Amino acid sequence: MIGRKINNTRIVPVTVKIVMVFTIFILVSNFTTNYINLVFTRTELINLMSQLLTKDLKSIYEYCNNQHEIYQYDRRLDKSLESIERKGLHELKNDKAVIFGVKPEGRILFQASKINHSDFFTDTRVLDEINKKSSKNINDGYTYFTFNNEEYFGIYKYNSKWDIFIFRAEELNDFYKETTRIFRDVSIIIIIITIAIAGIGIFIIRYLLRYIQVITSNIMKMVETQQLSVIDMSKATNDDITYMGLAFNSLSNTVGNLISIFRKFANRDIVIKAYRDREVRLEGTKKDLTILFTDIKRFTFITETLGTDIIRLLNMHYDRAIREIIKYDGVIGSIIGDALLAVYGALEDTHKNKSYQAIQSAYALHRVVDELKSKMTKIRDEIIAEKGTLDETEEAVYRAVLLEIGVGIDGGQVFYGTLGSYLRMTNTVIGDNVNAASRLEGLTRVYNIPIICSEYVKNDIEENVEDAKLHFIEIDTVMVKGKTYGRKIYWPIPYREMDEPLRRQVALFQNALSLYYSGEWKEASIKFQKCKLPPAEEFKQRTSTTCPTNWNGIWQMTTK
Fold first, then answer.
1. pTM of the predicted model as reported, rounded to 2 decimal places
2. How far apart are the first and last CA of the chain?
3. Phi, psi angles (nearest 5°) of residue 363
4. How many domains does the chain have?
5. Which of 135, 256, 406, 558 has the fewest beta carbons closer than 10 A?
6. What is the full DSSP assignment across 432-501?
7. In a domain, 290, yes or no
8. What tens digit of pLDDT does each residue of 450-481 get?
9. Given pLDDT bands bounded at 50, 70 and 90, which one contains residue 262?
């Protein structure tokens, strides 16, 4: 590994950092150049492909007209369409290339391709767009669209005799396959050359900055012993590095009194205790707390789409989210990338119900996400108003910034306190209920609801909060992975959202759930099919089969 590790902290040499920075610059520069070259090449390929597609479309268009004349004579539609498809297949070279005719309402009249045939053109956005253009007498053009779950580029033209739009298109990945291979090969060469240059750079820079090692070694020793001392600079050269070492010596006594203070960053409850006791000790106690766990969905897609801009998006989200958590007396347990853990009931100066505060925070977090979505949608609309449309990259970025979160809430006895050493400590919460909150958050994806809480949270609120104005819908009894018993899970809904239609749907769902628990899956399936609540979709799939042998009403989850 690079550098030395002190107290679980790895110290990376400045030489490595300098080389890494320049290596990143070189890689970014070369990859950017390579990518720009790829974009220009693909643009030219698109132009060439457009010419070829136009030629093919003209040929099939004329052939369709001829077949229409034949159809008018013999009235054998199947024979005419079959002839068109054979003609189209003869024109196609690539495996995923297509020629098809689609009615204005979306029904596919014919399809010439080597892939599975489709009955309908499912990209309604593109279909609406070309229909609008057709109403303005614009009956042909180029377009990107989704077909058979693949991204395509193609041209189309309206055929009035058949009342169809005839498409000639190529699947983008299939078309770009060769340029992608070239881009990959060039990228590998860039990486190899950069690594070689970085190795030489490390050797040269290490020699030029060799006296930094003297200073850093002494500082590391001070960190290990927690004792500041004067660095021996008698063998150092007369340069800025020597001046830095002497400046450190002049400040060592002053800094010594401040190190222990600035190393101890903690949450609000720890700050209060430190102010009261004048110190922070390594200690912890068992407490009855409520744990909230929230996670951003589709995070891999968001990261791949936004790259380093993901940090800006996360900061925008967490800035508001953390404010809402603190507003409801929550303590931030940890933030790990797309996941956030909050603890309720740890503060001694608040007397509000911890579980109720957690539920309020959960809905506040969803409001934060909704407001961010509205903001991003407004920006998108402004761009569309200015440019007319979003390109493919902008559309992907827009989808990425529309954050979705799930929230899981559980509570009970946990260990809460400071953990680590007097050199470095942190505030933490440990317990089975912490893991359970994470599992409940994962279940929000299964049941397609925003918040899931445990029976502990439900009971805590119903028994200790007057007029909580929350309705808890029992969703299921599940045994999460790693557990040997089942637990009831609930969806908390504010009373203000419980209108009469929703109440009827909840009653229908609860009735179906009761049949599901008792093993009457056939009858339960009929009721779930009528239910419009999001969790019903999961049960529709489950009850489409027969009830398992020895069914005990507990659904066992096989994934986390």
1. 0.52
2. 32
3. -70, -30
4. 3
5. 558
6. HHHHHHHHHHHHHHHHT-SEEEEHHHHHHHHHH-TT--EEEEEEEEEE-TT-SS-EEEEEEEEGGG--HH
7. yes
8. 999 999 999 999 999 988 899 999 999 998 77
9. very low
